[in-house]
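Check out a protein:
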Amino acid sequence: MFRAPRRITRKDIRQPDQFVTLARQCVSFFTTHRMTFVVLVSTFAAILAIMLGWDLYRGRQNRLAASEYAHAVGFYHAGQYKEALEALNRLQIYRSSFYSQLGLLYTANTQAALQDTAKAVEALQQLIGKEKKEPIVRQAAFISLAYTQETKGQCQEAVSSFGEAEKIDGPLRGDATLGKARCSALTGNFKEALASYRKYLTDNPASDRANEISVRVQEIEAKVGEGSAGAAK
């Protein structure tokens, strides 16, 4: 059944529009809490400005650190160790940058090239003591420290440093295992040396050094009598 549309009366027209009512309520609420809104907006703007400024600052710091690092590496490979150390010292100003960690590695290598192993060890220990560092950087620091200790004849300490590097999952783990084996043999701990050499062969069966390490294992086994004992059984 057809129903005629409802007629709009004068009473309906005089009633306030919902949109207008809502708008008036919003204006009233803003007017009442105007200071609160001003403070919130100002705080948000300040936080946004600080975050943007910090990002710009960090970006600039990283660019400056990268430049100093590149200069230092260039000097190092050119054999200009004094100039390399000067650039590396400037690099440490940017302590929050990843390049400062790499710089400590090059500082140690540069000091070692200058035969100053004490300062090389100091730089490496400083790097190892940092709270935030990439695993590969930590591993490289322990490896470099171990090599420096081995050069100084501190083989027992080198075994420990190589062992720390070996615990880290990284590309230098094999070098750490071989270093640990080598220094263990130098200290007369042939059992530990054999264990490390065998571990290297197990972990790296396709290594170019596999034959060399196998021969080394046989030499140590013969030295400690393991080879003959095994044959007697």
User: Anything to note?
Assistant: The domain at 19-224 is CATH 1.25.40.10 (Serine Threonine Protein Phosphatase 5, Tetratricopeptide repeat). The chain has twelve helices and no strands. The CA atoms of residues 167 and 173 lie 8 Å apart.
